[in-house]
Sequence to fold (206 residues):
Amino acid sequence: MIKQKGILFVLSGPSGVGKGTVRKSLFEKDTNLKYSISMTTRAMRQGEEEGVDYFFRSKDEFETMIEEGRMLEYAQYVGNYYGTPKQYVEEMIELGHDVFLEIEVQGALQVKENYPQGVFIFLIPPSLEELKNRIIDRGTETEDLILNRLTEAKNEIEMMDKYDYVVVNDNIEEAVSRVQSIVVSEHCKRERVAKEYKAILEGENK
Ligand SMILES: Nc1ncnc2c1ncn2[C@@H]1O[C@H](COP(=O)(O)OP(=O)(O)OP(=O)(O)O)[C@@H](O)[C@H]1O
Ligand SMILES: Nc1nc2c(ncn2[C@@H]2O[C@H](COP(=O)(O)O)[C@@H](O)[C@H]2O)c(=O)[nH]1
Fold:
């Protein structure tokens, strides 16, 4: 009997658009998804926890992970490394669990290159002005870093055509509900395909 693999969902979009907010709300509704905790070299923010928000590592430790081929994807973003450790994602997918990544655009495009069967969702802000306000109001970055993130945002938004779905995060509940619908419908689609495939195999074995 063929065991069905899990689906890899990738939520991406510019910094401050609300990826983390959408993901946390989605995980309160859909408890079957597994979240892949990223690794980063950036400093821990107030209120963040090791192994919950990120695995916080030194530059040397991160580079060793890269050299050993243990990252599914990684990127340098505004002066720091960010990446997805491979082992957890591969194990969960093999066990049939759906895995959710929340990552920036360079990394998402690497995953798409190496794992095109993933489902790629791009979150966009209602406007660049609103994006700026959200980053400022969050209060986690200095003025310089905010400007760097906004410069990146403009380049990142140009990549949205490469994604399977684009969701506007204007009203938070609506955005979460759209992402949830994508997750449910992709899941149903894969189950239907798997059933059809199984029926074909059974027919061939008669
Ligand atoms: N729909 C929304 N309307 C208004 N504010 C929002 C909305 N979604 C998120 N926010 C707020 O915008 C700020 C940035 O959100 P969040 O930290 O989730 O973004 P992010 O995309 O995960 O950022 P980063 O990529 O930098 O981690 C937060 O203060 C959050 O409360
Ligand atoms: N390519 C990857 N990008 C990631 C990963 N984890 C988070 N991120 C993205 O980095 C920026 C900055 O994050 P912040 O926590 O410093 O605000 C943001 O867009 C994150 O989504 C990852 O594993 N790989």
Helices lie at 19-29, 59-67, 86-94, 105-114, 128-138, 143-157, 172-205.
